Amino acid sequence: MRRNFSFFMDDDSDELVNRYELYLSGGAPGYFDVDEMEKIADYYLAYGRTKDSMQAIDLGKKLHPTSDALDMKRAKIYLTTGDPKKALRILSNLIEDSDFEVTFMKIEALATLERFQEAFELAKKLIAEENNENIDIICNELAMVFIKDGMFELALELLKIGEEHNPRNIDLLFDIAFCQEQKTMLSDAIQTYKRIIDIDPYAGEAWFNLGQVYFLLNQYNDAIDAYDYALAINEKDTISLIQKGHSHFQLGQWKQAVEMYLEFEQTSSNKWQIWLFIAECYEKMEDFPEALHYYKLSYNEIEDNYDAIVGIAVCLLELELFHESLEYIQKALEIESELADVWIYLAEAKMRLGEYKEALKAYHQAVSIDPNQPDALLEMGNIYMDFADFKTALKYYELAYSFDQTLEFIELFIAVTSYYTKDYDKSTTFLELAIHRNLDAKKLFLELCPGAEEKFLKIAHGLPKE
C-alpha cells in the first residue's frame, strides 16, 4: 500500500492537547511519553501552528533526550516549514539512519536543497535495500519528490524501476506518462496511456489525457475519438466536451464546434468566454449577424472584453456598418493600442468611408508596431499611387513584395510605379513576372500607363518596340 508521511491525528488528540495545555499553564502536573508528544506536535502542525508544534518537541526532548522519534518529528517540521538544511543536519546525526522514513526524509531534504544527484543516488540505494512486494509503490513515492522539483528525467528513471516490478500499477503509469509529457516525449506518453487503458478501459482520465496529447500533436481526429470515450465514461466531463469543441474548431468543422460549445455553455459559469468561441465559429462561417449576436452577448457580460469588442468591430465592418464599427474600434484602442490588428481595422473602416489620409495614418501605425504586414503595405502603396506619389508607392510595394511574393498583382504594381519613376528596366522585369502570372497584366499595365508603348525601348511579351 502507498506510504503516508503526512501528520497524523487520532480521535483522542483533542483530549491529549487539552491536558498538555493545562500542564503548560501550571494547572496540573503531568507526564507525556514519546508517542503522546508526537501526537501533540502533529496536532499543532495540522492547524499550521508551527511555533506551538516546535515547543511541544522541545518539551518532549527534555523529557526524552535520547528519542530519535522526536528528532525525526523535528526534522519533519523543518521540512514542512521550508528549512531543509536544519532537517538534513538532524537526520544525518540520527543513530537509526538506515530507517526507511529517515532515508526518505533525507532524500526530500537533498532535493529541496537542489542536490538532486545525491538525492537520486540515495533513492536508488533505498530501493535496492528494500526487499518487499511494494517496490513499485516505493519508486512512485520517491519519484514524486523529484517531480515536485521538476526533475522529470530522474523521476522517470525511478518510475521505470517500479514499472519493472509491477507493470500494471496504474498510479505509477500515470506518473510515467506525466513525466513523458513534461519531457515532450509525446509518442511515448501515448503508448503509456494506451497501456493504462488496456488495463482499465474505463479509466476516463487516461482517455482525456490521451486526447490532450493528440491535441498537442495536432492529431485532432484522434483527439476527438479519445474525448468521446472519456465522455462515454462520464457524460458530465465538461473539460473533455470543450476540448472536443476545440478539436473540431482546429479542423475547421465550425458547426460541430458550435454544437460542443453550446452544450458546454449550459454548465459553464463563464459563459462570456464560451460565447466568444461560438462567435468566432460563426465568423469563420461568414455568418456575421450570428457572430455579432454572440460577440455582443460576451461584451454585455464584461465590457472591457477586448476580444469581444474587436469581434464586434470586424462583424460590423463585414456588414458594411462602418460608422458603427469605428465606435468599437476606438473602444479597442482605448484598451490596447499596441496591437497592429486593430489599427488595420481602423484603416479599413476609414478606407471604406473614403477617408484615405486617415486610413494611411492608421496603416503607418500598424506597420510601426509589426512591419511584417504585407497586405497593409500593399494598401499603403495603393493609396500613395492614388495620390500620384509613385516613388513612395513603389517603396511600399517593394516592402510588401519582400514579405509576400504571392500578393495579387504585386508585380504589376511594381512595374507601374517603376515606369512612372522612370526605372524602365525594373518596370520591364516586373511586367514580365506579372504577365507570367496573369495574362491580363499586359492589358492592365497599358491602361495604367497609356504612354508606355511610346516610351519603352523594349517591352516583353509582344509589346511593340519603339
Walk me through this protein's architecture.
With 466 residues, the chain is mostly helical. Among the domains are: 1-113, Alpha Horseshoe (Serine Threonine Protein Phosphatase 5, Tetratricopeptide repeat), CATH 1.25.40; 408-466, no CATH class. It has helices at 13-24, 34-46, 50-63, 68-80, 84-92, 100-112, 116-129, 135-148, 152-165, 170-182, 186-199, 204-216, 220-233, 238-250, 254-265, 271-284, 288-301, 306-318, 322-335, 340-352, 356-369, 374-386, 390-403, 410-420, 424-437, 440-448, 452-455. α14 (238-250) packs antiparallel against α15. The protein is elongated, with a radius of gyration of 35 Å. 40% of the residues are buried.
CATH fold topology of the domain at 1-113: Serine Threonine Protein Phosphatase 5, Tetratricopeptide repeat
> What is the count of DSSP helices, taking H or I runs of 4+ residues?
27
CATH architecture of the domain at 1-113: Alpha Horseshoe
Structural class: mainly alpha
Round the Cα radius of gyration to an integer and report it: 35 Å
Strand content: under 5%
Topology order in helix (H) and strand (E) letters: HHHHHHHHHHHHHHHHHHHHHHHHHHH
Give the termini separation: 96 Å
Q: How many beta strands in the DSSP annotation? A: 0
Biggest sheet architecture: none
- Shape estimate: elongated
Q: CATH top level of the domain at 1-113?
A: Mainly Alpha
Mean pLDDT: 89
Low-confidence stretches: 1-9, 459-466
Helix content: over 70%
